[in-house]
Amino acid sequence: MRWSLLISLAAFLVLGAAVTTAAANTPAQSAAETNATANTPAQSAAGPLDIRGSWQPETYRLKSGPVHELTGLITFTKKDWSVLFFIFTDEGPRRGSGEGGTYTLDGDKLTFRHLYNLSGGHAVEGFEASDLSMKVRPKDAEDAPSEPCTITIEEDLLTIFFPSGNQMAFRRSSD
Questions:
Q1: For residue 48, what pLDDT is reported?
Q2: By three-state DSSP, how is residue 32 classified?
Q3: Within the chain, where are the H helices?
Q4: Mean pLDDT by 10 residues, the chain (175 residues)
Q5: For residue 70, what are the contacts with CB-CB under 8 A and spacing of at least 6?
Q6: Cβ atoms of residues 81 and 103 within 8 Å
Q7: Alpha-helix runs per DSSP H in 25-161
Q8: Which of 7, 23, 110, 154 lies 20 to 30 A from 131 at CA?
Q9: Are the C-beta atoms of 58 and 70 separated by less than 8 Å?
Q10: pTM for the model
Q11: 51 in the Ramachandran plot: left (φ > 0), alpha (ψ -120 to 50) or beta?
């Protein structure tokens, strides 16, 4: 039942992000927004990084050494983000997380503001088993955790370097 709830809520988060992304790409975009989205994923060091769109997770590299293969999706709109990912082993999906909120991007500095979180699962290398956990905060919540990260984009590969020392790599799925 817990995994059923996790999958249902995660699908809601991802579908909501997809609808928000579609709404953000309306013909009423300003010239600046149109020019920004015209940049290719392989942007020059001098150009602004554009993370908007959907990205498929590939790997989750822990500071302690283990590297896990993932499946799921992270989506960025102009100011919102949503992620759903699962860590797989030979036994199938072992743990997962659905998260979302708002973000800011300044150069290569990406700061997540966490408003939604649903996570839990079995133990995998580098992670102990954890019960299902849910947290929801309003958009104006003053206690929403902020997570300052650094990113790189090379060709169509986005790598997020978290303050924990862990990193996740995502392949561009769509613009």
A1: 83
A2: helix
A3: 2-24, 31-38
A4: 42 41 39 34 59 97 96 97 96 96 97 98 96 96 97 96 98 84
A5: 57, 58, 59, 60, 85, 86, 87, 88, 168
A6: yes
A7: 31-38
A8: 110
A9: yes
A10: 0.74
A11: alpha
